[in-house]
What we know:
Organism: Psychrobacillus insolitus
Low-confidence stretches: none
Number of helices: 1
Oligomer: single chain
Structural class: mainly alpha
Protein name: YhfH-like protein
Pfam families: YhfH
Shape: elongated
Amino acid sequence: MIENVLEFFRNLPEKKCATCGEKIEEQHECYGNTCDKCNTL
Length: 41
């Protein structure tokens, strides 16, 4: 079962910024959806 979970996370698509569309360099399962340049927090 652990192999199935690992395979799931390996197969997630690249995460892209919701504002500019640039690829986000972080873990794909993270909740954030904006890149560092567009993040205003």
